[in-house]
Task: structure prediction
Amino acid sequence: MRTPLLLRALCGALPSFVVSLSACHPGPASEGDELATKTGIQCAELPPAEPILPENSGEAWQWVEVPGSYCRSQSPSAPGSEGNAGFAIRFGTTRRDHLLIYLQPGGACFSEESCQLSAANIKTARALFDGRSVQMSNFGIFASSDEDNPFHGWTQVFVPYCSGDVFAGTRSEVGAPLSGVSSYLGHRNLQKFLAPLVATFRGAGKNPKVVLAGSSAGGFGTLFNFEQVQAAFCDRPLDLVNDSAPLFPEKSEDEGKTLLPTCLQEHWRALWNLDAILPRSCDECRSEGGLHHLMYDLARRYPQSRFSLVASAGDRVIPAFFSSSVAGCGQGPCGRGVEPAAFATGLRELETRFEERRAESAGWKVWTLGYSAHASLLGKEASERLNDPAVFPLRALRNLTQSKLDGDLARWLAEQIQD
Result:
């Protein structure tokens, strides 16, 4: 068990419409709140919710619909629109009190081209999950028969991705590049999803081990949602596993090559309203082209949490993602694409910066895969198939019945998430 964390004041770290904190808005004390005082983490006050009851005694997934949560194609103000997004849960067998929350990959919607590849409604997102749930049970961190899987026997939550905003948006009725009007409410949706999960797994003597993980778009989502998940499960430090989603500065230090164009960052910031969810303590995060500072800020303020980045120097998807053309950036990012070799350089420099800033980012560790892949938490073969930006993910995984985690990666992850 890790020693208690003395967290710096968090009141005001998130706007009140995102999450309210019990220290800022006093309420009745709970057993969980008393436990949280030992860790120094402030507890979120979430809306009342009913616990989730297992619908079966086996290892099947069950769907939890959450009213008031919206996909990209929905508008909260539209007549009769109640919002019907949700998540899937599979209760654990041997370690039911260990909770994995996984955010699905799936691109993003910020340009006409990118929006065409991003799910826009829960019907599509849920249909994709329902049709693949048996298959998913044999993939990577979800493989229930793989005893080398570090999440074997855990309770697992799969959050389908239909908001198009890397789970970070807080805007509704936005003029979107492709579909006219969109809602980017991924961050607010996850807050709503946390209420029934907290009602099920926290309090009344429960003190769950929680890991927030995600791949690609979901990997970015782990960074933007870490604080609200930690505040929801405040009894012990939250661990994070970011798969294939590093945040870079605009240029590499040694070669000056483009990594993550400032114009693209600022486009995302405005479209998804990112400043509303960035920590108020992180002025650098709000500076132009400064989103990468979020990684350092989280590790500095949550030194007891373990932050893991899994990446491949041969990832072809993220360089293409960072090369997207948007208005104001010219053809490609400010007229230049992100070269795969520059991406590999960016990863090396990121790991070096983590080492240099060990005093403030002791929690960050990087596992660089020895093969070309994308979304490696879904298993080695799946990640190799998914490493093609020109192929739609479902087509890439067609006829693939199982995909085991890379053995070295599985052992490294087990060390990262151990109690």
